[in-house]
Amino acid sequence: MMPVIRLQHAVFDPVAECAKLELGDAGAVASFTGLVRGEGGLVALELEHYPAMTEEALKRIAADAAGRWALAGLTIVHRVGRMAPGERIVFVGAASRHRGDAINAMHFVIDWLKTDAPFWKREEFADGHSAWVEAREGDAVQREKWSDRTKKGCRGAAPLSGK
Amino acid sequence: MMPVIRLQHAVFDPVAECAKLELGDAGAVASFTGLVRGEGGLVALELEHYPAMTEEALKRIAADAAGRWALAGLTIVHRVGRMAPGERIVFVGAASRHRGDAINAMHFVIDWLKTDAPFWKREEFADGHSAWVEAREGDAVQREKWSDRTKKGCRGAAPLSGK
Amino acid sequence: MAIDLLYFAWIREAIGCDGETVDPPDNVTTAAELIDWLSARGDGYADAFADKGRIRVAIDQEFAGLEKPLAGAREVALFPPVTGG
Amino acid sequence: MAIDLLYFAWIREAIGCDGETVDPPDNVTTAAELIDWLSARGDGYADAFADKGRIRVAIDQEFAGLEKPLAGAREVALFPPVTGG
């Protein structure tokens, strides 16, 4: 199983991503899509990243997931740059013979993406002000839960998000 | 939040289902799609159900999920009747402001669907024989995990699948 | 009192019909007793209900345990463990 | 030895550039010491690094703790806690 990892400015279509995962005849496909929320007068989200590192970080997270669960397919698509409310930011899809494996792998990847990939979000509002999104402590807590659940392939590094 | 529940013979398109969940501006959409696997010479899957009960069972599972997690949307589509390898059997999608809520609600619904909704699968093979799918003990075990995690809204009934 | 019975999956196949209306004697007060009474009706029934551990029940469209009193039930469904999703 | 520095998010904005090449003195042996040394260079740096608890580091494109020795590192990135996904 070779994970599909894409980092891109362009909008993407989760349909196409899911369709590829479904074609593998694994039987169970779980996916997560994160979108830009338009609340509080938000007009744009800017996603900055560390180009030399980002793809490697995503590959590592994908490899960790593949080491923990029996996967037939794993896809991560993450956008960078400027995006509008309602647009998709990130897609994680996992295929497996077992629904639990597909769902847990997807959940693991999105949790680790939040804490272990070099992305930073800046929000721009209608009144002209903008602000960098603060890391949420809950993300580090959520990420740590995975070290209790399965040992195999756990990297055990300190979370990069949170306080 | 009014769950969308559909029971149908016709094939369905998870794209359309996800699109509706994404439109809610909740930010996080998790989905699960179960498909007919074509392995072992399987040529068709027949899904029998208990028409007078099925929709009510799905509504109850959806209401339980909505009572446990903060959801902006919840969709269950389940097919009945005869279907071919590669076709989708079931779709569960959940939208929330919080990725954990969306993912856990989706996971809960598919686990409970496996044990608490009156569906029975029969597999037909290329050599002409057919067999009813046996309930897996693991499904009952998986379903029971949810009673440990959150108390709110737990029905606590005995699993209908498993031994 | 008359009860509408519904059979699903291999129980339906073993019995050879998807349902029937029956009027069991007064000493049939639970689903388990109903199953025993039905089993005496012939081979198909006996085959269908040979292993009570593999039978699940819904009384008036609510899942129930085998020992639950029928207590005036109008519709009783008998089926194997569910395998949907 | 020359080190390529990279700044991201509000650290980049506070300092006013997205990176530079520096040649810190020999007594700068860890990321934390590098941050202290940079902070003495002016207001933008001092602002960016005022709270070391909010700084994360990657050394040669590997995430690292602030106390990790630089030990011949070629590229050091300084950034706030990540907020992707």
Automatic annotation (TrEMBL), chains A, B:
GO terms for biological process: Mo-molybdopterin cofactor biosynthetic process. InterPro entries: MoaE_sf (IPR036563), Mopterin_biosynth_MoaE (IPR003448). Pathway: Cofactor biosynthesis; molybdopterin biosynthesis. Pfam families: MoaE. Keywords: Molybdenum cofactor biosynthesis. Heterotetramer of 2 MoaD subunits and 2 MoaE subunits. Also stable as homodimer. The enzyme changes between these two forms during catalysis. Its EC number is 2.8.1.12. It comes from Parasphingopyxis lamellibrachiae. This is Molybdopterin synthase catalytic subunit. It is an enzyme of class 2 (transferase). It catalyses: 2 [molybdopterin-synthase sulfur-carrier protein]-C-terminal-Gly-aminoethanethioate + cyclic pyranopterin phosphate + H2O = molybdopterin + 2 [molybdopterin-synthase sulfur-carrier protein]-C-terminal Gly-Gly + 2 H(+). SUPFAM superfamilies: Molybdopterin synthase subunit MoaE. One of its GO terms (molecular function) is molybdopterin synthase activity. The keyword Coiled coil does not apply. The keyword Cell wall biogenesis/degradation does not apply. Belongs to the MoaE family. Converts molybdopterin precursor Z into molybdopterin. This requires the incorporation of two sulfur atoms into precursor Z to generate a dithiolene group. The sulfur is provided by MoaD.
Automatic annotation (TrEMBL), chains C, D:
Gene3D superfamilies: 3.10.20.30. InterPro entries: Beta-grasp_dom_sf, MOCS2A, Mopterin_synth/thiamin_S_b, ThiS/MoaD-like. Keywords: Nucleotide-binding. GO terms for biological process: Mo-molybdopterin cofactor biosynthetic process. SUPFAM superfamilies: MoaD/ThiS (SSF54285). GO terms for molecular function: nucleotide binding. It comes from the Bacteria. GO terms for cellular component: molybdopterin adenylyltransferase complex. Pfam families: ThiS. Belongs to the MoaD family. This is Molybdopterin synthase sulfur carrier subunit. It comes from Parasphingopyxis lamellibrachiae.
